[in-house]
Amino acid sequence: MSVLKVNICGVEFKNPVITASGTFGYGLEYARFIDISKLGGISVKGISYNEVRGNPMPRIMETTSGMLNAIGLQNVGVHKFLKEKLPLLRKYDTRVIVNFWGKTIEEYVQVAEILDNADIDMLEMNISCPNVKEGGIAFGSDPSMTAKVVSECRKAIRNKPLLVKLSPNVTDIKPFAKACEDSGADGISAINTLLGMAVNIHTRKPYISNVTGGLSGPAIKPVAVRMVHEVSKVVKIPIVGMGGIIRWEDAAEFFLVGASAVQVGTANFVDPELTLKIVDGLEKYAKSQGLSNISELTGKVDLSK
Amino acid sequence: MKGIILKNERLNDKYRLMEIESPEFAQTAKPGQFVMVKTGLQDYLADPLLRRPFGVVDVRGNTFRLLYMLVGKGTRLMTESPAGSVIEFSSSLGNGFKSVKNQNIALAAGGVGIAPLLWIAKLLKDDGCRVTLYFGGRNQEDIILADEFRPHIDKLIITTDDGSIGEKALVTAPFEKDAAGFDRVYACGPKRMLQAVSEICVKGGVPVDVSLDERMACGMGACLGCIIYVREGEETVQKRCCVEGPVFDGSKVVWESVCR
Ligand SMILES: Cc1cc2nc3c(=O)[nH]c(=O)nc-3n(C[C@H](O)[C@H](O)[C@H](O)COP(=O)(O)OP(=O)(O)OC[C@H]3O[C@@H](n4cnc5c(N)ncnc54)[C@H](O)[C@@H]3O)c2cc1C
Ligand SMILES: Cc1cc2nc3c(=O)[nH]c(=O)nc-3n(C[C@H](O)[C@H](O)[C@H](O)COP(=O)(O)O)c2cc1C
Ligand code: FES
């Protein structure tokens, strides 16, 4: 499968298909159903310093070709993750990316320091969750705040590459991507969920207790493709593209606009085997295009008239 | 997994019964478990996007059955999947009802909540239990599969809101009168009904297992969209309805958080 082998920020992945944070639990949930060793990598559910119980129910609602979620970054906390989840996950032959967040810059740094010394392959900093008031989005919606939190974490992280995951809930994503690169990020993940809302016309109440939620799934793909394209125009560091990928063709689109790897999120709910089908599809496609490696596709969108 | 739809039978305007052939599934499923289902049309359209959870009615040879109520887009597409077409589904998910021997058992069902109770009724009866089914619905249309139950139960008590069949009452009314006499109760139906049944059981000191419905995205424990709250000692803990459930000890469920 060398045609699919990619190197992202110095880490080699057997293929460029990674499961997106929050949609694949700690990886172990799916191990019963698919061979997770066939995945390029797994980005685990966003980890914070302390355990977080998340938002009240209901937290999810299906929308047209997508879903809204307001899970609220529920997770077991970094210590329990390292003790109870990571050793089990490491038994599989796949790259482990740990998505993390904090309520304050100090907390981001605290979690980053701990993870930097853990047996993981890469960190992914989430500054873009629309479902928690503190942290997350506050750092992802002001470029100077983004620069601050990224550079503080950068100082704390010495051993691992750092991806920063951007929010699409901004008018222009480019300054955020640039701020990340300038502050020492090794790569960009884009995009997180789009802020959305759905109302039950019979009860006149929002379907989700948090009122708004993050929109994901095929419905957001065109927005995500556009944003990855924009990001690729302003940064040189690798981009991990995501948002609505459900077939290998979707993944190929992300490569063309500048992604070096992709993450697959909501599609895992639709069919736990979809990621593996995407790996197969991409391999056949790369070969049929006469590529010696899938990375030759990165940024090759033809914009000529 | 994939299976072939052998039958997709219309029971009335509200309910259908689907029989699916899949030896692999039939060998592994247990009573009270559920399955996430996606039709071929859904696969093609990407709308509706997510799979839909349904309780397993029973397994016979290489086939299993689903009883489904027409609700929205997903169940509409299920009606449009004819016999002979292929349907996709997960393996059997969740924990089921535990089987017991030689006990006096009550089953309490509300509407489509009857779906996961037929199989456990058969097993209980085969294991020497005396089984009484309390079955409530809005009207006659909701009282489905009752005839299939008859060989596997000792007593059937039907209630409807409008009295179109059985007693005009909530299912909890006749159940409450007899509750203290049972060794164990299994219930599935609307959350308010399950709450009422559980409260009656707690009062009478009868163990009660309830099968809960929560909106599910993944059905396999990853998304954390299906959280319910249960008491463990002094603490209130979170459980995923899909993995730690859908069957829970009704006396432990924090009903205020579940009935919203
Ligand atoms: C463990 C479990 C077992 C179930 N067993 C059965 C069964 O045997 N027979 C049956 O008829 N129904 C059952 N349900 C409910 C069934 O899943 C919903 O009626 C169905 O998903 C509705 O889909 P729809 O597309 O027609 O409706 P829509 O309203 O279009 O669905 C929109 C979204 O809401 C979800 N949803 C809607 N109603 C429910 C509900 N009551 N519970 C969970 N999610 C819901 C859907 O899955 C979907 O994601 C069960 C639910 C759960 C959680
Ligand atoms: C239920 C759910 C939970 C999520 N949790 C996280 C999270 O903890 N951290 C994070 O960075 N992104 C989280 N996301 C965002 C996804 O990782 C991904 O960026 C987004 O869903 C878009 O991709 P998709 O359309 O393929 O799902 C979550 C998404 C969903 C649907
Ligand atoms: S439905 Fe996803 S965790 Fe239960």
From TrEMBL, chain A:
EC number: 1.3.-.-
Entry binding sites for substrate: 45, 69-73, 126, 192-193
Cofactor requirements of the protein: FMN
Residues binding FMN: 21, 45-46, 99, 126, 165, 191, 217, 243-244, 265-266
Active site: 129
One function term, GO molecular function aspect: dihydroorotate dehydrogenase activity
Reactions listed under catalytic activity: (S)-dihydroorotate + A = orotate + AH2
Entry-linked SUPFAM superfamilies: FMN-linked oxidoreductases
InterPro entries per record: Aldolase_TIM, DHO_dehydrogenase, DHOD_1B, Dihydroorotate_DH_1, Dihydroorotate_DH_1_2, Dihydroorotate_DH_cat, Dihydroorotate_DH_I
This protein's GO CC annotations: cytoplasm
Pathway membership: Pyrimidine metabolism; UMP biosynthesis via de novo pathway
Subcellular location: Cytoplasm
Cofactor note: Binds 1 FMN per subunit.
Keyword annotations: Cytoplasm, Flavoprotein, FMN, Oxidoreductase, Pyrimidine biosynthesis
Name by which UniProt lists this protein: Dihydroorotate dehydrogenase
UniProt source species: Geovibrio thiophilus
Native organism taxonomy: Bacteria, Pseudomonadati, Deferribacterota, Deferribacteres, Deferribacterales
Gene symbol of the encoding locus: pyrD
UniProtKB/TrEMBL annotation, chain B:
Record GO biological process: pyrimidine nucleotide biosynthetic process
Pfam families named in the record: DHODB_Fe-S_bind, NAD_binding_1
Cofactor(s), names only, from the UniProt record: [2Fe-2S] cluster; FAD
Superkingdom per UniProt: Bacteria
Alphabetic keyword roster: 2Fe-2S, Electron transport, FAD, Flavoprotein, Iron, Iron-sulfur, Metal-binding, Transport
Binding site for FAD: 74-75
Protein's name in the database: Dihydroorotate dehydrogenase electron transfer subunit
Species the sequence originates in: Geovibrio thiophilus
